[in-house]
Amino acid sequence: MRRGRLRPRLLDLFSCAGGAAVGYARAGFVVDGVDIADRPNYPFPYHRGDALERLAALVLSGDIERYAFVHASPPCQHGCALTVGTNASQGWGGTHEDLVTPTRDLLDKTGLPYVIEQPNGRAEIRKDLTLCGEMFGLGVIRHRNFEVGGWTIERPAHVPHRGRVRGYRHGRFYDGPYVAAYGNGGGKPSVPELQVAMGITWTNVREELTEAIPPAYTEWIGRGFLTANALGVAA
Questions:
Q1: Taking the chain, what is the end-to-end CA distance rounded to the nearest angstrom?
Q2: What is the pLDDT of residue 98?
Q3: In a domain, 39, yes or no
Q4: Which residues lie below 8 Å from residue 187, measured CB to CB, with a gap of 6+?
Q5: What Cα–Cα distance (Å) separates residue 18 from each residue in 25, 211, 215?
Q6: CATH number reported for the structural domain that contains residue 110 in this entry
Q7: Quick one: average pLDDT of 73-78?
Q8: Which residues pair with 118 in a beta bridge?
Q9: In this model, does residue 79 exceed pLDDT 60?
């Protein structure tokens, strides 16, 4: 951070265990999280409760003005590739509420710059950015799309993958330089392998690791925002 300049504050909605949060902190933000679940491994202060209710309350009270930026990762089951693909074709799972639209509506009311993150699938967001683990030398592919609101950032070129994701496909095992950061069985990685591949050390809960964004993604986004807006950079 530049000397004499306060670190800007970021609101991390649907924060889970803090994959996104750690990246933003490395970029130079002070981070506050919000998640409806108990997240004892979240490494920063957080409010336990409904993320949209919390955001609405911050807007109504004016306390949203404490923040310079908002990150939102609403649950993706409504539009993720697994729900709209395999699960739907097999009649598995139930219906899921679309939280992207109400999240965007509230974010627009804040007047703050923001990003909304979603995995590949049919979630109704603009794919202003698509980031991949190979762009950052990680051991996962883990494509994630980001809708950018109230600011702009250059879209990076996608980097070709070096091979396959390790694991079984239709009864055949394939080796490769990446591990599958989802599910169990089928040649899925151990928890320590996931931690290394994702660049996450502060949680050893498989569910939290498989739901997380690699911190490298949001560190890149955060640094881009801070540099473009001259709010300061990490020390």
A1: 4
A2: 87
A3: yes
A4: 166, 167, 168, 173, 180
A5: 10, 10, 8
A6: 3.40.50.150
A7: 78
A8: 145
A9: no
